[in-house]
Amino acid sequence: LLWHRENTNIKWSLPAVCFVWQLSMIILFGVFVRYNEESDTHWVDYRKEKNITSDIENDYYFRYPSFQDVHVMIFVGFGFLMTFLKRYSFGAVGFNFLVAAFGIQWALLMQGWFHSLDYTDGKIKIGIENLINADFCVAGCLIAYGAVLGKVSPVQLLVMTLFGVTLFAVEEYIILNVLHAKDAGGSMVIHTFGAYYGLSISWVLYRPNLDRSKHLNGSVYQSDMFAMIGTLFLWMFWPSFNSAIADHGDGQHRAAINTYLALASTVLTTVAMSSLFEKTGKLDMVHIQNSTLAGGVAVGTAAEFMLSPYGSLIVGFFCGIISTLGYIYFSPFLEEKLKIQDTCGIHNLHAMPGVIGGIVGAISAAAATNTVYGDLGLENTFDFTGPFAKRVPTIQGGYQAAGLCVALCFGIGGGIFVGLVLKLPIWGDPADENCFDDEIYWEVRQVFFFLLTFYRFFSIKAIT
Amino acid sequence: LLWHRENTNIKWSLPAVCFVWQLSMIILFGVFVRYNEESDTHWVDYRKEKNITSDIENDYYFRYPSFQDVHVMIFVGFGFLMTFLKRYSFGAVGFNFLVAAFGIQWALLMQGWFHSLDYTDGKIKIGIENLINADFCVAGCLIAYGAVLGKVSPVQLLVMTLFGVTLFAVEEYIILNVLHAKDAGGSMVIHTFGAYYGLSISWVLYRPNLDRSKHLNGSVYQSDMFAMIGTLFLWMFWPSFNSAIADHGDGQHRAAINTYLALASTVLTTVAMSSLFEKTGKLDMVHIQNSTLAGGVAVGTAAEFMLSPYGSLIVGFFCGIISTLGYIYFSPFLEEKLKIQDTCGIHNLHAMPGVIGGIVGAISAAAATNTVYGDLGLENTFDFTGPFAKRVPTIQGGYQAAGLCVALCFGIGGGIFVGLVLKLPIWGDPADENCFDDEIYWEVRQVFFFLLTFYRFFSIKAIT
Amino acid sequence: LLWHRENTNIKWSLPAVCFVWQLSMIILFGVFVRYNEESDTHWVDYRKEKNITSDIENDYYFRYPSFQDVHVMIFVGFGFLMTFLKRYSFGAVGFNFLVAAFGIQWALLMQGWFHSLDYTDGKIKIGIENLINADFCVAGCLIAYGAVLGKVSPVQLLVMTLFGVTLFAVEEYIILNVLHAKDAGGSMVIHTFGAYYGLSISWVLYRPNLDRSKHLNGSVYQSDMFAMIGTLFLWMFWPSFNSAIADHGDGQHRAAINTYLALASTVLTTVAMSSLFEKTGKLDMVHIQNSTLAGGVAVGTAAEFMLSPYGSLIVGFFCGIISTLGYIYFSPFLEEKLKIQDTCGIHNLHAMPGVIGGIVGAISAAAATNTVYGDLGLENTFDFTGPFAKRVPTIQGGYQAAGLCVALCFGIGGGIFVGLVLKLPIWGDPADENCFDDEIYWEVRQVFFFLLTFYRFFSIKAIT
User: Which CATH number characterizes residue B54's domain?
Assistant: First the structure.
């Protein structure tokens, strides 16, 4: 039996895409992007004009530590979390690197046009907050990568990111600016959108014969350890993620506390569920690597609200349970019944907790009162100023819920469209029997691999 | 020969403990824990009232970067440092994760009752400093875990942590508040207490036949590399650890400098000793992974004092020597004569350097003068205010020494008590021949492990 | 055939060097080093005197987050980047640790004498900026280590570092103080100097029979993954590196933005070139691990200038191309024609991008105008004050170029001198057939290594 081998040669397409897109970035940045007043040498004049007493009040010092933590989450966190597959670690961490490096540039432009355009000169003015938002935007695309890990070519990933960032910028503008919903940690804007975007793409790209490479669709001891590096850096720095663009002062402070607590709670219920569903109570690394993070996703929207410490613990408690149950029951169901192959289980880590996070945000916004927040505090937290000066918490709750729907629609709709684009037979994606295999796109030095080769040899024979 | 197999089924006990304790946390947080004035939406009013000119003076901005570094030390530092065993890496990093996630919640409550209780409404008010202190508290329990690594069940670890955090909060209150001793980096409060707590537990749980699993009680090349990730993140972020809760301004600044220098010095003497005691001067990874950190432990108490840069170097110099000698001579002695099996050698890394740190702190406090510190500086550094306004440095030195004794007593006494509790035959701990083996508590994918299995097969045959 | 075995016994030389040098550090620190006014307990008086309104204006809070990121780059970044060799990971991360721990102490003294000497009492006064500069200084020596990785003994590395730090401090003084060139991210001072220093040493130490250990001069799958940890932490934290000692406020802010963008651009062109030059467009991990960082090197000097966001992208664009071409064409040429064996390819990652960075810095300085910078901004950015009050941008450009030449001269001249010192047959360096092998200087536990031993056994037989 000789299977049809797809053409995975990307010798021209990958360099072409990289060069052309990077050149376009240079041209667009040349036309549009400049430093904002806090990163420009004119800051010294601006400081005097605005009567700012010290350089330390530059936004840079409010946000730089959080920015660096978010940056680590994007490149090491997401990158290493996906290295769990036994021989797709290069693809996990390497393509994550490529996609994110492109995505942040495109995001600076797309988000800049919507949020940071200076109408006096038509330029996008960037500062530290733009860098954080670009990282956030890319996070959505990296979540989507989790669903198709091992089954697509790097060119497809770049296309996914180009469209993903574009869709993200639009839905973000609608949710945050038009609907004036709040979403500091991005439960809706990042996680719900990103997860359904990825799942929809994976649904369109369904591979009925994926089990031909099932011998590679699993972990080994060392690859599970590398994945734990990703898990822990995501887990530890999540308080920075949810607080990075929150309000100065109490806003950032509270977002960090809420996230810290929600994540702690999630770990215990994840361990409990994992143990409960295995024979003799053993733990499964898949759950520890993923479900322990669900609380951070779900507390994203409400992180800067007065959710209360115990409120955060409750959110984490349920998300650990739901996410672990997702891995045990829902992932097989998705694959068999709905034909969605979700390599990393992003439905359990991002989709469900993201939706929960949107709902928690809507409810806690609707329930906000002047007694709890204080008059000024309520206005500050929800930005009930300018055109939104007359909005009240219950109405805000409704707009939060509307925001969640927008994220879902953009994720599902955009994902189906992009999935169809990626179905074109020009992208160099691997054949079913070559999925999850670094050898297709990477020079792999062998030595230790002869073991795996033996293993593969026998598995393939068994199938044939 | 058929050995007795212990019942390591934790299918009911582990989920039960996790769920019940997490629910208790939620209830207790609901009753007791609220945001403090810097993380509450009323901050805007508080700022005006206290005449604080900028949001940047929120304690969050003084401590958040250090907090995140400490957080990394707890979860990646301690977690990966313990992955050196060839097949207990899941247990090292996974149970470290579980224990710390529970411990920080319980610590927020225990430390909150002692230190952050608002008597006007009976609530614990938390902010960033509480999160750091909770991480510190858990560090004591994770040090103790090092002594029993591979020999206990996760349920036992949770019990150890429950009691450990409780004991920690009490001894900390006595040392810092009653005795008014200073201990910014926790040489006494964290390291001395944690190490003797763990060693005492290990003494009570002594296993005479532990050599039945000695084939697993060692490292392989890759596991040593993972452990170096832990070592380096602990080493690099230790300046943040010792400065995290030091006084704003010069206090944090000085604590970071002292720790940076002490650790640098330790590396050189550790390498020297390691090389001196091996044939042909080869280095031993065990020493590099552990003893290089001893200087950070020993400079903990005095980190915010005017120890002088050269004083820090001297402390690091001797700790590198003593700690490495501990691994070479003292650990075998502890195991053979005192019946204390100390998997990670915490006696060399935490116990001895911790005691040295307490002594250095007492001496340098007693030697403090107005000339060196300045009048205001002396008052600020040692908090000679309120009821302690009349205390002088020599007296302070005595109280520092008393603090060290309290830490020792709580560590040893508490450890013996908790050890006896853990000796009950209900906790699902592994049999002697199953120690240091991830397969007991984790689903382990095999592939590479057939090598280890062969090895184990032949070792066991040899013993039988 | 019996090869001559070099004497690699370092049982006396390594401990002796470590002890004697560390003792010297203690004595010199005792005589010379004290806390500066911001880390001394007299800060409280100083604050009043200088009318500083809040502790947050202590330089510590401006620079500590960047300092910790730089610290991670030095110890985890450089250390893990060099672990790519299949069995020299202990040497990579361990000797990096040793060398850096010694180097930062010696750098505090050397740089202190040149930059932080208080002439009123003859003491070096240190604070957070000195710690960052010491880390920077060591970075130069660690770059040099990359050229000789696997071919020298730890004693040789310490000697290299002793001389390297000394040379660094002198060239830095000439470039920054005498020529008054700007070099925030050290393209010239750190990268150009460090790379040519290492390459020159490697040239003097040329080993014609190095192919006797070529079976070990390559990577395996796991070692490539460990190296990616180093790559990513360098890549992510490079914005902190280039901004760490930039001017407060807009200076640090702009340096971070420029570096972030240059690095993103580099990733895309590196991937493009790597794919373009491999059969079927596969990617090579060597390029991804190294060339993706070239943009950070090349934007170092100009990072705090008004380079513009698109200017940074352009720099990164060309550096990704040049650096990858370097690995493909230039490294073999260097080895075969110029007799320079460059284990890590530092010529491609540091030397060429460093020189480019110096040139970019000179051009962008010469092109600075009052229109773009503002009058005050120009003065602030280039420190046109005091004795340099009359300097204009075009002249500054010339001095920048002169600075680049100084860095080159010190690197090449110093490297040749130190190379000759290291050629003395007293340092315990390995024989040609033992290069790149951890077993020479480390206790290595075997188990997994029997595979490698087989491999080596057959390779050596084949050569014989």
Answer: 1.10.3430.10
